[in-house]
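Q: For a teaching handout, I want to show students what a protein-ligand complex looks like in token form. Below are the inputs, and the small molecule is zinc ion. Please produce the holo structure.
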Amino acid sequence: MKRNFRFATDATLGKLARHLRTAGFDTCCAPQGAQDDFWHTLDPKRIILTRTRALRLRYKDRNPVFIRENDPWRQFLQVVRELKIVADDLRLFRRCLVCNRKLHDVDRQTVKGRVPDYVWQRHARFRTCDRCRRLYWAGSHPGRMEKRMAAIFSTQPRKRSDDCETT
Ligand SMILES: [Zn+2]
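A: Here is the structure, written as tokens, with zinc ion included.
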């Protein structure tokens, strides 16, 4: 069964936040200079990821994860290990990397011309973010992110056309 991890990160952990969104996790990133009013009003179910010792101490009753690594990918691995996240918990291709909004299916015909032709021809399913209107498809995440994730979770990359869930 999937576990529903939700996160809130320091402003300095923006790239980690994007990695977590790639994995499908609801992740809000604190604005630059966020103070107690931001952290206090967070949903207590959000797991705080921080590089700030003061923040870690202040919210220690919420079991924040203190991020030791500098590299965003290693930070992601640290979170995966500490929280024992497994492949079944992932929801790849489900959330906007920029806005953190859930993506929605979009009619393939309406996407024609908005993505490169070779992409349109190869993919049956497209999703969009209601806020920023970015389009996503299996394989659209930047870099080799999905493959790297598949590798660390020891799963084979899934077939392109059903690389997403229906719920
Ligand atoms: Zn968006």
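A: Two things your students might notice: The two ends are 14 Å apart (CA to CA). DSSP finds seven helices and seven strands in the chain.
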